[in-house]
Design a protein that fits this description.
The chain has two domains: about 260 residues, 3-Layer(aba) Sandwich (Aspartate Aminotransferase, domain 2), CATH 3.40.640.10; about 160 residues, Aspartate Aminotransferase, domain 1 (Alpha-Beta Complex). Helices cover about 45% and strands about 15% of the residues. The protein has a seven-stranded mixed beta sheet, with helices on both faces. Strand 2, helix 4 and strand 3 form a beta-alpha-beta unit. Bound molecules: ligand F0G.
């Protein structure tokens, strides 16, 4: 439950595609079948594979970023921001609406971009300084919250008025489309497939990490604009691989083609969303602070409210995530200040939200797994005073949450284990 990325269960037809793949370095038929699926499902004529989502982010930041300028987004993802800043030397502007940071909310589209803030940013920076405007469907670090079609249309309109390039991160597009279907009135009579196609028609460039909605390991960039793909093409063999594999195995490309066709099925698009809804609503009903409304990819616990005695300097969500691991064996993900790198001058940058993300990979878990975690979270909530903060004992310079090492302040883990052992049992 650390992530929903690369750990989803493939379908029987995806496994069949593994076996049937045409393993050629150049001109593999499997690639052309994949390109057909991209055209059928997303409506794009040009596509290039990359080894995973962040490789797409690297190429986009390198080619379309403006050093000294800015890239605009509804909200950042960790690797996205790192590429915008490190690869393109741009500032990453996050133009979400105020509601986005309210963890307890009924707003159906907390992933929307604030249109007034977009207009203001364009005025401030000038269109020549803005590399592109990126919409992430759904916003991972806000708790898997979607944007509405109406909002995407407005973003597109403003970008057109200023000749700005629009980009969509579609790693979780099927889920964003599912939310539009369920929550946006005008789309209730459309299919998830139709919604996905319409979303794709509203941006110039599309990329995704295939590790999420398509349930395989890889990624791609797609567009209908020849002049855009032509700018990216020369760099593909240098950073990824030849044009008909782009750093992926042909087997994964075959399975990705099937995954694309399958993700538009509402039973697939909604499979983890409905589990998350159950998970979130149950915790919310018990008074345990979670991000509402329920989003995609995970149940997000609001650590700032859960352990409100821990100061922000002591990595609130990291501490709660460690406690969950001790009390349940469930490895969740810190999505807070540990996941936010320091500023250039070494100063700590405190995250907007301190979340413990309990990811729900697709077609992997059942309700009884969720019940187990709810039971343990309930115990932790009652004993939350035992949890203290953390401190870094080794800290890498970029994406520190991957390789950093932390220690428990005052060795609180010991006492926590002892009380847990007395209450629940187990050996430590
Ligand atoms: N964009 C989004 C919205 C993502 O969630 C991720 C990865 C990426 C890009 C990068 O893709 O991993 O294939 O290189 N998210 C994973 C997670 C790592 O745990 O949420 P990648």
């Amino acid at each position: 439950m650390l992530t929903d990325s690369g750990v989803n269960a493939m379908s029987d037809n995806q496994f069949a595609a593994f076996l049937n793949a045409d393993d050629a370095y150049a001109g593999s038929m499997t690639f052309y079948e994949f390109a057909d699926a991209v055209k059928d499902i997303l409506g794009y004529q040009y596509v290039m594979n990359v080894h995973q989502g962040r490789a797409a982010e690297h190429l986009l930041a390198k080619i379309f970023g403006k050093p000294g300028g800015a890239v605009i987004t509804n909200y950042h993802f960790t690797t996205t921001k790192a590429h915008i800043e490190v690869t393109s030397g741009s500032a990453c502007l996050e133009l979400y609406a105020d509601e986005a940071l309210k963890t307890k909310s009924t707003h159906p589209f907390k992933g929307n971009m604030d249109i007034q803030r977009l207009k203001d940013a364009i005025k401030k920076w000038g269109k020549d300084k803005i590399g592109y405007v990126r919409m992430e469907a759904t916003t991972n670090l806000l708790g898997g919250q979607p944007f509405s079609m109406e909002n995407l249309k407005e973003v597109r309109k403003v970008c057109d008025q200023h000749g700005l390039l629009t980009v969509m991160d579609g790693s979780l597009i099927a889920e964003n489309a599912y939310f539009i279907w369920k929550r946006e009135k005008e789309y209730q009579n459309k299919t998830v497939a139709e919604i996905i196609k319409e979303m794709c028609s509203l941006v110039d460039l599309f990329y995704l990490s295939g590790r999420k909605n398509t349930c395989v390991r890889g990624g791609f960039i797609a567009t209908n604009k020849k002049e855009l793909i032509e700018q990216l093409e020369p760099w593909l063999p240098l950073y990824e691989g030849f044009y008909t594999y782009g750093g992926m195995s042909m087997r994964e490309i075959g399975a990705m083609a099937v995954g694309l066709r399958e993700m538009v099925d509402p039973a697939v698009a909604g499979c983890s969303i409905e589990q998350i809804k159950y998970f979130v609503e149950k915790l919310d009903g018990m008074g345990i602070p979670v991000v509402t409304p329920p989003g995609g990819l995970a149940c997000h616990v609001d650590a700032r409210k859960f352990v409100n005695h821990i100061p922000k300097e002591h990595y609130i969500a990291g501490a709660l995530t460690a406690a969950l691991y001790i009390a349940s064996g469930v490895r969740a993900m810190e999505r807070g200040t540990i996941s936010t790198d320091r500023a250039k001058d070494g100063k700590e940058v405190y995250a907007d939200l301190e979340l413990t993300r309990i990811a729900l990979p697709r077609r992997v878990y059942s309700i009884s797994h969720i019940e187990y975690i709810i039971d343990r979270l309930n115990w932790i909530y009652k004993n939350r005073e035992l949890i203290k903060g953390l401190r870094f004992i080794s800290e890498p310079p970029v994406l520190r949450f991957f390789l950093g090492k932390l220690d428990a302040l005052d060795n609180w883990g010991r006492k926590f284990c002892d009380v847990f052992k007395k209450d629940i049992g187990g050996t430590w």
